[in-house]
User: Fold this.
Amino acid sequence: MNCKICGSTAVSHKFNLTEKLGIYSCVECNVEFMDPQLSDAEITELYSEQYYKSWGISGESENESSKQMKIATFLLRLETIKNYITKGKVLDIGCATGFFLEAAQSSGFEPYGIELSEYSSSIAKKKFGNDSVFNGKLEDCRFADGMFNVISMFDLIEHVRVPRETLAHAGKLLDKNGIIIITTPDCKSTSNKRMGKKWTHYKKEHFYYFDLESLKYIARQCNMNIIYHESSKKALNIDYLHTQLNVYKHWFMTPVINILRFVLPKSLTRKNFHIGIGEITVVMKKN
Assistant:
């Protein structure tokens, strides 16, 4: 088997995620990847309304506790962005229902989004307008080359079939002085090392698992350079974790969170805390 990122044959099988889905690791570029990937039909079915129930979203109703928690995380990302860009047009690829765009707009940016899911993009369109949110693949979007000062990919690049092509196309849409910011699970994180195959980021919809070196590799392939990186923190609360971990069940964490949600007062289960969960954030610029 060849690595899906660098083409090397120095690939080893780590374990099977399911009976049919294997996780593989490349010695050359440090990426981990899933094989085989879900089919287009399986992806379309996956990113339906049911997928967003783990966020506490149903119909057009957004759970206020989950929304404020996610926006609190995005405000952390905006602090990083503002070290390089303080105003202009921002494109969020994989914008879902538009939580990051709401945070960016409140911080003075002009918001645009791309979202594959027809369900979640319809909610984002109602917030920002049909002309500002594109439902479909990045490669098919109608936005002009060089249009954006900031392009964000939060929890996105691990989902796409060919990350190099996604990053290269994003680069075309980026202003020559703009930045791309990416947050993705870090396969060399402490949580990965401790949890092994039970790492919570190992999911059938995550096709790739990067670390800093493999992100540097695809950046170089796209004539970009990583100018900043950090171990990411997220705002979380017990209510959100309860919803997530009862959709994506974990042998240890699910019962622990269920107990905490039962015994703690609502004021605490809805209170945000910041914690690292094994993710990395990088900022890239064109060379």
